[in-house]
Design brief:
- The complex is a heterodimer of chains A (234) and B (291).
- Chain A has two domains: 1-77 and 153-234, P-loop containing nucleotide triphosphate hydrolases (Rossmann fold), CATH 3.40.50.300; 87-152, no CATH class.
- Chain A is 39% helix and 26% strand.
- Chain A has eleven helices and ten strands.
- In chain A, the strands form two sheets. Chain A has a six-stranded mixed beta sheet with strand order 6-7-8-3-9-10, with helices on both faces. Chain A has a four-stranded antiparallel beta sheet with strand order 2-1-4-5, with helices on one face.
- In chain A, helix 3 (93-100) runs parallel beside helix 7 and helix 5 runs antiparallel to helix 7.
- Chain A is globular.
- Chain B is mostly helical.
- Chain B has helices spanning 3-34, 41-59, 63-89, 95-118, 143-165, 167-177, 179-184, 189-214, 221-236, 241-261, 264-281, and strands at 133-136, 139-142.
- In chain B, helix 2 (41-59) packs across helix 9.
- The longest helix of chain B is centred in the N-terminal third of the chain and has 32 residues, at 3-34.
- Chain B is globular, with a radius of gyration of 19 Å.
- Classes of the chains: A alpha/beta (234), B mainly alpha (291).
Chain lengths: 234, 291
């Protein structure tokens, strides 16, 4: 479904990604793990069209994605929940959600999508008139995830969805993501919670210094000695 | 000091303030959303006033009609200005400084064009009802002032509803608060910047016409108007519509009262003094929250 081939991305002189290849198949949940500065956020921002690739190709259902602007990528159903949530702080929760359905292609269904999001996160319904900036961390992550669902994703990319959350809130978010994947949504999950992430994903990629250091079924990655020492602290 | 004079100048201050707010709201949006300080904003407002003047003089068209008609015209002109001049500099490192210098030049060009077309004499808008007034007890309201006031209320309400209720307006707010996320959900930042800029300029036209109904104007009046714009935006907070309205009213009332009770040459001193005090003590304005 999504294929990344030999992707290289540069910020000025610095190469953030060097020849990265990966793929996400339909209905699959894929983990992307690695330390700070490994290039995880760069990779999904490149897929989203925020960062231009220096070399390599991106394709979606056989069609090239290179050179498309972020709004076009979103229209294709590739939707990102950005790191740090990046809600619109001075807009209400409901306005944030409505903005998720900004594109004309999904706007018509926005009322129906809104009901679905409120079904998944009843707490957002209670807070619908509150400003997003005033929510707790867990609620903000729900709102950010809800906003992405409003865009009717076919591939959902989540960048560190549990960052800064209490263990309880993080567990809730992971359970929701898992539920969405069970309903058939393809997911690319970037996270530093390596153990949880490998527990709920089918495949995984380990990025180190902008290259894919390891890849394989998540179960095998969990048993890999290198992953154990570097990421699980075992 | 008698009560009638105080109340009368309070009311004229409020009317004046609402007009400043209409002129200021677009200035504030371009500044907040695009990081462009649009120095020629007031000059475009003045251009609107001159267009209304000519329409009235030669075709007898009421300024309110001109305000409505000039809005789409200025919108298109501003789209062109955006594509030609503003968009190239949004890639500059210091967008704010670059935009100020560029639009300062544009303001000078516009001013000289207005001198060429309308010459440098002061003008007043004199619609048929210009000499009429509404008299309520001891108070006296000239019709053109009431029309200018009404026009600015309509203008500001329109902008407010646009920002709150339409998808495009929400995208403007989203792009201001969190541009990257706005892009991720399909907002085209260039398109939104162009719309913000053009909308601001077209409301400047209506604002200029409203102000021309209250005061006389000449080709360099935009310089003084610009000081009021800065004052309104700095007091109200950049990008904050309600703050802009409140700031306009506060400043209008203060200038209204100083005009009534201070010698004329002191009035601008009060205005500039206020601007400096705010820049020193409350650089983010009275109200922190934005659009």
């Amino acid at each position: 479904m999504l294929r990344v081939d030999n992707l290289t991305v540069c910020y000025g002189q610095m190469q953030a990604l060097r020849g990265v290849s990966m793929e996400v198949s339909t209905g699959e949940m894929v983990a992307l793990i690695g330390g700070n500065g490994a290039g995880k956020t760069t990779l999904i921002n490149t897929i989203s069209g925020l960062v231009p690739p220096a070399a390599g190709s991106l394709s979606w259902e056989g069609r090239p994605l290179n050179g498309l602007t972020p709004d076009r990528i979103c229209r294709e159903g590739i939707v990102q929940v950005p790191e740090g949530r990046k809600l619109f702080p001075a807009m209400t929760v409901e306005e944030n959600l409505i903005m998720g359905a900004y594109l004309p292609t999904v706007r018509k269904q926005s009322q129906e999508s809104l009901r679905k999001v409120y079904d998944i996160f009843p707490r957002l319904a209670d807070r619908r008139r509150q400003l997003a900036g005033s929510l707790s961390g867990g609620e903000q992550q729900m709102a950010a995830l809800g906003r992405a669902l409003m865009a009717r994703p076919r591939l959902l990319m989540l960048d560190e969805p549990s960052l800064g959350l209490s263990p309880k809130a993080a567990a809730e978010i992971f359970a929701t993501i898992r539920g969405l994947n069970k309903e058939g949504l393809s997911v690319l999950l970037v996270s530093q919670e390596v153990l949880e992430t490998l527990a709920i994903t089918a495949h995984g990629y380990v990025l180190e210094n902008g290259v894919v250091a390891l890849k394989g079924p998540s179960l095998e990655l969990r048993e890999d000695p290198k992953v154990k020492t570097s990421y699980l602290g075992l | 000091m008698d009560a009638v004079l105080i109340i009368q100048s309070l009311i004229s201050g409020i009317m004046m303030g609402m007009v400043y707010a209409l002129l200021g709201v677009g200035f504030s949006l371009t500044w907040g959303v695009m990081h462009v300080i649009h120095i020629s904003h007031a000059a475009f407002g003045l251009l609107g006033a001159y267009l209304a003047y000519s329409m009235l003089q030669y075709f007898g068209v009421d300024p309110v009609v001109s305000a409505a008609a000039s809005a789409p015209l200025l919108f298109l002109v501003a789209c062109g200005v955006y594509q030609l001049l503003i968009r190239p500099i949004t890639r500059a490192k210091e967008v704010i400084v670059a935009s100020m210098i560029l639009t300062f030049g544009l303001a000078i060009i516009l001013e000289n064009v207005m001198v060429l077309i309308w010459n440098a004499d002061p003008r007043v808008l004199t619609p048929t009802y210009a000499s009429g007034a509404l008299i309520v007890g001891p108070f006296y309201f000239q019709y053109p002032h009431l029309v200018g006031f009404g026009l600015s209320i309509v203008g500001i309400t329109t902008i407010y509803l646009f920002l709150k209720k339409t998808y495009t307006g929400m995208a403007v707010r989203a792009a201001w608060q969190q541009p990257e996320a706005a892009q991720l959900y399909g907002v085209n930042l260039y398109r939104i910047s162009m719309i913000t800029f053009a909308l601001a300029v077209s409301t400047a036209g209506a604002g200029g016409i409203s102000l021309a109904l209250l005061n006389s104007f000449e080709p360099h009046s935009h310089n003084l108007w610009l000081i009021y714009l800065f004052l309104v935006v700095i007091v109200g907070g950049v990008g904050n519509v309600i703050g802009t309205v409140l700031a306009g009213l506060i400043i209008g009332v203060i200038t209204g009262l100083s005009m009534a009770f201070l010698p004329y040459q002191w009035v601008n001193l009060v205005t500039f003094g206020l601007l400096m005090i705010f820049l020193i003590f409350r650089p983010h304005g009275l109200f922190r929250q934005g659009v």
